[in-house]
Each structure stands twice: as structure tokens, then as C-alpha cells.
Write a structure and sequence with these properties.
single chain, alpha+beta, Pnp Oxidase, Chain A, 8-stranded antiparallel sheet, 7 helices
Amino acid sequence: MPPVRLCCGMTILGKDAATDPSLAARRLIRGRGHAALATSLGGAPYASLVATACDIAGNLLLLLSDLAQHSANLRADPRLSLLFEDTEGHADPLAGPRLSVIGEASAVDDDAARARFVARHPTAARYAGFADFRLYRVAAARGHLVAGFGRITWVDGLRLRVDGELTALAEAEAEIVAHMNTDHAEAVRLLSPPGRGWRMTGIDPEGIDLRRGAKTARREFAAPVRDPREARAALIALVEVARAACPTPRRGIILPPHANPKG
């Protein structure tokens, strides 16, 4: 079964991620919604906890209050580091995977990126439009990945994102998500951890995001997708795998008409 980040367990990176540090790093970033943020307070290290999200390509997004100390720090020095970890379920947390991303943050005015942040963190909708809240995009220079014992490496910043033309997928994301939740709730249930009420909240080149209340989960695609046609095929493949593991037959899925290939 394709790897899935369970809401109450460890990240299952999968065999492919075990041999591809950049893939493991991207999965860790997308699978976590919060990180420790380190900024410079007049040259002294200052650490805080922040909510994180990604744009469609995987660039990190932060939504920060201008009144916060870390925001003042970034205005003075845009350099930062973000620590992502997924150590829950490990008897020794230091045996779990973690990633330190080094880069620079810049404020952006991007409605699509803001919408992705709010989809990842629904409570942010209450303040995302306030004048004293600012959206930042992180230009990652590199990441230091500790994926397990003896699996420690640096990952170039360009490998922490998905390159290529993703406009078609980005433009179709909202419709695909709405269609899945409205017309294929059973398929979404099959792709989710146990329990009712899970909804799909996002799709990107490497997988889908799911949410139920404060809990989140993720399903990874077997290969990257770059447009609605490829996304349709990848979603069907995920559902077929999930259906095969379920004793009760389920319906297939059909994406919005514009996403269906002709001919």
C-alpha cells in the first residue's frame, strides 16, 4: 500500500523514500503541520513554534503576526531554520526522523498560497485576512535530514520542492478537492485512517492531505503528478489499493469533467 502518514502514529516513509533522501525530506515537510522556528534576535538564537504549510510545489509557507517576536526578528534578518520532526511512537524520540531546513523568508501577497495555508489550518481563516498578519514563503537553501540510524545527509534546497509546470494542477485543486468530498466521500473514507468525518483538504504533485477536526493524515502518490489528468489516474490507483485491502466492494471515482482525458 502506498505510504500514509497516520494521525496518531509514525510517518511511514516507504521503501522508495528510504533510498531517496530528498523524497523523505519532502514527505516529512508535507506530513507535518507545525515546526520549531529559529530566528536571530539581535544575533542570539530565538526559537518558537509555528504552523506551516506548503504551496503546490512544496515551498514552505508561514502565516505570522507582525506583533510576534519572530516576525520582528525576520524583518531584521530574514534567515531562519525550521525543524520538522515525526518522533511520536518511537521509544527513543532521537531514533525518529527529523529535518532542519535552512533558508530565508520573504513576505508574499499570494491568494492561492494563502488559501492553501488556510486549507491546511482551518482555524487560520479567522485571522488570515487581518492587516497585521503576513504570509511568508521560505526559500530553502538546504535541509539536514536525520531519517534514522546512520541515515544522515544534507539535501539541496532545490530538491525540497517539485520542479516543473504545475499551473494546471494548482488551478484544478479546489475543484478536485470539492468533487472528492462531495461526490466520492466513500473513496475519501477509504483513503483515510479509521473513523468518520475525514475530508480531503488538498492535492499536490506527490499526494493528498486529509483532515478530521484537529487530526491530519496524508496519502502519497506512487509517482509525481503535474496536471488533472495525471491526478485522476493517481487517485484511482490509491483508491484501488485501498479497496483491495477492504472486504466490502466500493465504487470507483471519477474526477471533474475537465480533468477527464478525451478520446
